[in-house]
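Sequence dictates fold. Next comes a concrete instance:
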Amino acid sequence: MIAFGWGVLQSDPLFQLRLPPCGVTGGTKSIINMKQFKLTVLSREQTGRSASRRLRSAQKIPAVLYGKHAQPINLAVDVPEFVRLLKAVGGSAAIIELQRSDTVPALSVLKEIQRDPITDRYVHVDLQEVKADEKMELDVPVHLAGESTGVKNEGGILDLASHTLRIRCFPKDLPDFITVDVTELGVGNSIFVRQLKPIAGVEYRTTGDQPVVSCVAPEAEEVAAPAPGAVPAEGAAAAAPAAGDGKAAAAGDAKGATPGAGDKKAAAPAAGGDKKAAAPAAKAPAKK
């Protein structure tokens, strides 16, 4: 099972499709005068795995509505209607008006969506109840506006450090996005939370020293130098055979000189033979 917090879903490209919000029909007046979405939900009495499986087989999603003023309420949501809601909300922060036939409408925000990792089906939805007259805290997505001068003129790259920011406000003051203008952002500079323009009725809860977006220089490509002797120069390659030829010639000369030593040995016995032959000739006159 995979659980998606609403902050993760807000940055998911699949939910960036922006459609007009659904209005309240049937002559029912909206709770407060603000842009909001509506979702029809059903109360459910049965809980547990078996009951949840039966709900999913009937194209419904088990859901729970939490609130600090009441106990958690078990609900069921129609799958096709929930999918349409997500597409309509897109990646924005949104107030969702829950409509039930057995009670008055309630305001809520999406907190978590669980999906099956294999089938990708919706498994469970968590909703948090909010009150029109009470301030709430939630994460709102960050949108960048303009073309950074560091990107345009210096070849820089934008690095979005904070995809969402924590804010506190009344439901009527909830912004869809927090827009950050990066037009004057140069390479090596950052925009911090404390530098953001104030929004009426909104209080930033994220620390002011938190960077929102930076413009960084691109990493230079490093060219690896060849290892010494890995690729011999053309002159060195030509000189190697020449040196080999010299060695071969020297070896050949040395071998050719070897028989000369044999000639000396051959001459030595001849000299010895002459001496032996001369010796009897010297003794011959002694006989009388």
Summary: The longest helix spans residues 234-283. Confidence is low (pLDDT under 50) at residues 6-33, 236-240, 246-251, 256-288. The two ends are 138 Å apart (CA to CA). The CA atoms of residues 63 and 125 lie 5 Å apart.
